[in-house]
TrEMBL record:
PANTHER family on file: MAJOR FACILITATOR SUPERFAMILY (MFS) PROFILE DOMAIN-CONTAINING PROTEIN, SOLUTE CARRIER FAMILY 2
Upper classification of the organism: Eukaryota, Metazoa, Chordata, Craniata, Vertebrata
Official protein name in the record: Putative solute carrier family 2 facilitated glucose transporter member 11-like
GO biological process, one term: D-glucose import
Protein's membrane topology: Multi-pass membrane protein
Stretches that traverse the bilayer: 70-91, 103-122, 128-150, 162-181, 193-211, 279-300, 315-337, 344-366, 372-399, 411-432, 438-461
Signal peptide residues on this chain, from the entry's feature table: none
Pfam families from the UniProt entry: Sugar_tr
KW Acyltransferase (keyword) present: no
GO molecular function: D-glucose transmembrane transporter activity
Similarity annotation: Belongs to the major facilitator superfamily. Sugar transporter (TC 2.A.1.1) family.
Length: 498
């Protein structure tokens, strides 16, 4: 039995200061990512009308539909370009400025973006929307890279999984908040769209007010800066004076184990054969997180809801229900991740998503067979979203933190962040063609993706629950040595036979 397993029973809840620090990090981190994915949907028509009016005023002619579509697509998709830039610089900033310092500085991008988008209408410059979306994309890219890093490093081993799920909880909370605030009863009317887009400043201001009250990552202070006293103070504030000894001991052990090692850059991590399976695993999981069909589900949701007889003007409210579902499952994942473990949740999630892909294909293929089939489609949509939130949506970021030690973790987040944003951009560009070409059978493609990654996790990824970072690394290295030994034996047998 692992020595850490008893710690969960000894203490049922993490320290209050730890929860507040995590919440402060998340509200200006991954909450912004989720919020800015969904909030742009509500004012689509209003922003297009503004672009057309501005174009007419400048050139005395209406804008062509093709140019309007291009400009709107640029406003929406440049968010992913900003995210990629943010992911590429986030890891380096976290080493130079610290995890907390990077999160605080990152808010300048959000405040600048809110200012640009808020002033676009009054100045008659739709170009400010493009700049604003690029800046908020950079903010989201840095946040989704550095915030999980901070959460993973401030959490005690016994609560690292539950704390890590905070990333997905706040992403889904951000998506839900963007959907709700975009309703016509709030800021979803035409005259309010500049205010709606500039509300992204609110999470940034909240983080600037709250996060400075909490310490820097204890691991960063000791392992990167050599500040033993600062590490001790941070642990006492975050974990309590009684519970910080075990964590201090673990960090000291990691420090002695990594003595003389420098923080790796992405190229050095790619070249490190001892961590190839960890790196391959997190690259695969982050790519599949975007390519597993969750985007297709949201694309088909409106169609399924219309087929089910829901009035057009009520569909936005049902869509809010899908956001609420994902938020609830993220919370559920947080409650279950320490008892069931990471491997069970993520494998089970992808398995259930595979089953849902089959059912969705069948129900979409036979929509007119019976009046009940559209409702079955709706159930499948919600089941797919629930399955995603319960496993892949919540556990992927936890594994990215847990599979690497301090010297490799920032580089791992740079790589996985870049993969995530490139996959996001790829699915945005290719997905419409997949849907047009395969129609409902596109879910068979996602079936293959989900089933394949479920098998990979079963075979390759160890359970990381209640294990220290060093224990996880040693388990992977032991597995790598076995594979290398097997390869050497096979080579010797082959040479003998020849």
């Amino acid at each position: 039995m692992n020595s850490n397993e008893g710690s969960v029973s000894e203490k049922e809840l993490p320290n209050k200061s730890l929860l507040l620090a995590a919440s402060a990090a998340c509200i200006g981190g991954t909450f912004q990512y989720g919020y800015n994915i969904s909030v742009i949907n509500a004012p689509t028509v209003y922003v297009q009308n503004f672009i057309n009016a501005t174009w007419r005023e400048r050139y005395q002619v209406d804008i062509s539909q093709d140019v309007l579509t291009l400009l709107w697509s640029t406003i929406v998709s440049i968010f992913t370009l900003g995210g990629l830039i943010g992911a590429l610089i986030g890891g380096s900033l976290s080493v130079k400025l610290g995890r907390k310092g990077t999160l605080l500085v990152n808010n300048t991008f959000a405040l600048a973006a809110a200012l640009m988008m808020g002033l676009s209408h009054s100045t008659g410059l739709f170009e400010l929307l493009i700049i604003g979306r690029l800046l908020i994309g950079i903010n989201a890219g840095i946040g989704i890279c550095v915030q999980p890093l901070y959460l993973g490093e401030i959490a005690p081993t016994a609560f690292r999984g539950a704390m890590g799920v905070g990333t997905s909880i706040f992403i889904t909370a951000g998506i839900l908040a963007g959907q709700v605030i975009g309703l016509k009863e709030l800021l979803g009317r035409e005259e309010y769209w500049p205010i709606l887009l500039s509300t992204t400043c609110i999470p940034a201001i909240l983080q600037l007010l709250i996060l400075p009250r909490f310490p820097e990552s204890p691991r960063y202070l000791l392992l990167d800066k050599g500040d033993s006293e600062g590490c001790r103070k941070a642990l006492k504030q975050l974990h309590g004076s009684v519970d910080c000894d075990a964590e201090q001991e673990e960090i000291d052990k990691e420090k002695s184990d990594s003595a003389g090692l420098e923080v790796k850059n992405p190229w050095e991590l790619f070249a490190d054969r001892s961590q190839r399976w960890q790196l391959l695993t997190v690259i695969l999981l982050n790519a599949v997180q975007q390519l597993n069909g969750i985007n297709a589900i949201y694309f088909y949701a409106d169609y399924v809801f219309r087929q089910s007889g829901i009035p057009e003007d009520r569909i936005p409210y049902v869509t809010v229900g899908t956001g609420a579902c994902e938020c609830v499952t993220a919370l559920t994942c947080g409650l279950l991740v320490e008892s069931l473990g990471r491997k069970v949740l993520i494998t089970g999630g992808y398995t259930l998503m595979s089953i849902c892909c089959i059912l969705i294909t069948l129900t979409l293929s036979f929509q007119d067979a019976s009046p009940i089939v559209p409702y079955l489609s709706m159930v499948c949509v919600f089941a797919f979203i629930l399955s995603f939130g319960l496993g892949p949506g919540g556990v992927t970021n936890i594994l990215t933190t847990e599979l690497f030690t301090q010297t490799s973790r920032p580089a791992a987040y740079i790589i996985t962040g870049a993969v995530n944003w490139c996959s996001f951009f790829f699915i945005g560009m290719v997905f419409p063609f997949i849907v047009v070409g395969l129609v409902q059978y596109c879910f068979l493609v996602f079936l293959v993706v989900c089933a394949s990654v479920a098998i990979y996790i079963c075979v390759v990824v160890p359970e990381t629950k209640n294990k220290t970072f060093l224990e996880i690394q040693n388990e992977f290295q032991s597995s790598n040595n076995k594979k290398a030994s097997s390869d050497d034996t096979g080579a010797k047998l082959l040479s003998t036979a020849l």
